[in-house]
Design brief:
The protein is an all-alpha fold and about 120 residues long. The protein contains three helices and no strands. Helix 1 runs antiparallel to helix 2. The radius of gyration is 17 Å and the shape is elongated.
Length: about 120
């Protein structure tokens, strides 16, 4: 992703960032789903090590937050003309999707922390 979204070339900035981050988001989603499964599956296993999961979830949240900040800045930089495009609406939906996964990572992190503290 570019460092900061361009106001002059909004569509180019959006397409570049979207094409860059969409496969990574799909990979993150699969990873988060897998981590949630691991936590649920090992809920009764006292010897399961949750420490590494906390670090992984922290990294996932940081990556998602960076992407969220970029796409929110991009949406704020949109001109009135751009706001009528399908790409702009897609950007807003993408932001909502990222926010949902940040919330999911937060919930999963709380569960992991509780399991660590409960040992």
């Amino acid at each position: 992703m570019p460092i900061y979204p361009s106001k002059r070339n909004w569509l180019g900035s959006y397409r570049s960032a979207f094409n860059d981050f969409k496969p990574r988001l799909a990979n993150l989603r699969l990873r988060i789903d897998d981590l949630a499964h691991q936590v649920n599956y090992n809920s009764e296993n006292r010897s399961y090590r949750y420490g590494p999961l906390r670090e992984i979830l922290g990294n996932q949240k940081m990556t998602l937050t960076k992407a969220l900040n970029y796409f929110e800045a991009l949406s704020r930089n949109a001109t009135e003309e751009v706001k009528t495009t399908d790409e702009y609406r897609e950007c807003l939906k993408f932001i909502e999707g990222i926010q949902l996964y940040i919330e999911r990572v937060g919930l999963l992190s709380r569960v992991v922390n509780q399991r660590i503290e409960g040992k």
